[in-house]
Amino acid sequence: MIAADFLLNLLLYPVLINLFKRKRVGQYIRKEGPDLHGYKEGTPTMGGVLFVLVSLLFGVLSKVDGVTLAGTFLFFLIGFLDDLLSIAKRNSTGLKAYQKALLQLVVASVVIVLVRPETTVDLFEIELEMGAWYYLFALVVIVGSSNAMNLTDGLDGLAGWVYISGTIPYWFFLKEKGFSERIMILLCAGVLAFLIFNSKPARIFMGDTGSITLGGTLGIVSVLTKTEFYLILFFPVLVVETLSVILQVLSFKIFKRRIFKMSPLHHHFELLGWKEEKIVAVFTAFNLVSSLIALEVFGVIG
Questions:
Q1: Number of H helices, E strands in the chain
Q2: By the 8 A CB rule, do 210 and 52 touch?
Q3: Cα separation of 163 and 210, whole Å?
Q4: Using one digit for the tens of pLDDT, what is the confidence trace for 48-85?
Q5: Any bridge partners for residue 44, and if so which?
Q6: Do the beta carbons of residue 75 and residue 104 sit within 8 Å?
Q7: Which residues does residue 122 pair with via DSSP β-bridges, in sequence order?
């Protein structure tokens, strides 16, 4: 299934790219973004539609857990709607921030209601009972993961490589614990095929259709497997990117000063003069090394 997922995506992406070019399904660049991104205007976007739908198809054929599939599909619909509105309005803004957040909260709530998880959390092999507060915590994890991946998707290949560098080790970690979250690996196969066309110079972008779905799925899987805190170890780049935005906003509102030249953090390094390829390589390596250390610390490898 995994090989078939990869090959089908690999065969269909050139077709999708040509179709989107003819239909002018192109990316609109934020005006406040780095000047270095002007040339990307018009590049086909919404490329996540292919790797997500193909992975969901193979997920159904593989009899993946229904809640995971449903949650992944619902996050896909949010991202798809966001991209569709952006294309229709011919600017970089699709859904308004509060609209997107509300939809994410609704989907996350539906998942939690369906799962009805235990209210204990695994804080790096220390069991903590959170009681009713756990449900708020689970909401934050799922919605936060979705938004974190969305924030990270700002350079050619960055979100895709970060997803793969964290998900494969995370999957082995979950397998060691007795879980088999196959949808993550199916998405990895699709993302890997996508990266052939997304690495710089990108011929297509995943759009919110891809990034919101990938992040949302990670959050759902972590709640299902009670490994919410472990996401920090396997996806530190997502954490750092999100923190850079939060710190930037707080610093400006309180002190009227910016900590970074621009947030999320990858834009800060761009404005320092780093090339996109270097940023993607360094961030991916950092994410991978952190993931491998986590595997060694918890006895999966070593």
A1: 12, 2
A2: yes
A3: 11
A4: 999 999 999 999 999 888 999 999 999 999 999 999 99
A5: 26
A6: yes
A7: 127
